[in-house]
Amino acid sequence: MAAFEQLVDELERSYREAQERMNDPAVYNDHREAAEVGRRLKELEGAHRLAQEWREVTDDLAAARGDGDLRELVPELE
Predict the structure, then answer these.
(1) Global model pTM greater than 0.90
(2) One digit per residue, pLDDT tens: the chain, 78 residues?
(3) For residue 11, how many C-alpha atoms fall within 13 Å in the half-sphere facing its CB?
(4) Taking the mean position of all CA atoms in its chain, how far away is CA 69?
(5) Is 19 left (phi over 0), alpha (psi -120 to 50) or beta?
(6) DSSP character string of 4-15
(7) Contact call for residues 22 and 37 (beta carbons, < 8 A)
(8) Are 74 and 68 in contact (CB under 8 A)?
């Protein structure tokens, strides 16, 4: 699981960096670079959405482990 979490961290970092680059006026004014960054954002969009969903689910499972009523369901959901 640690390797997958590192992959998700890297994906989120790459997505954030691409968003920051797209907001940079220097990039925005360079049409070729803006197109390149836009393509990169588009490539990362679906994976980033899945990474966010994965984070939400893992957080929910962690919360369920601490809840006496839900704890018994966690192995089934994992």
Answers:
(1) no
(2) 688 889 999 999 999 999 999 999 998 789 999 999 999 999 999 999 999 998 998 887 788 777 776 667 667 666
(3) 19
(4) 30
(5) alpha
(6) HHHHHHHHHHHH
(7) yes
(8) no
